[in-house]
Design brief:
Distance between the termini: 35 Å
Mean pLDDT: 90
Order of helices and strands: EHEHE
Structural class: alpha/beta
Helix content: 25-40%
Number of helices: 2
Radius of gyration: 12 Å
Strand order of the largest sheet: 2-1-3
Oligomer: single chain
Shape: flat
Length: 67
């Protein structure tokens, strides 16, 4: 069985993350969805796992989506 692709969602607003996560997980058999509430957490995930798609908020406290 092929490995599932991984999508990482990064946003400091829980409502935005929840909405995106619900949309991506609906009837989903193709990829895993990971979430991070900050740029720092996203960096940790990126250091530990291979991520295929990254969807991030640009404006966040601390590390921005551009960082």
């Amino acid at each position: 069985m092929p490995r599932r692709k991984k999508v990482l969602l990064v946003d400091d607003e829980p409502g935005v993350l929840l909405g995106l996560m619900r949309t991506l997980l609906k009837d989903n058999e193709r990829y895993d969805v990971l979430v991070a509430t900050s740029g720092e957490i996203a960096q940790q995930i990126l250091a530990e796992q291979h991520i295929h798609v990254l969807l991030t908020d640009i404006s966040m406290p601390g590390l921005s989506g551009i960082d």
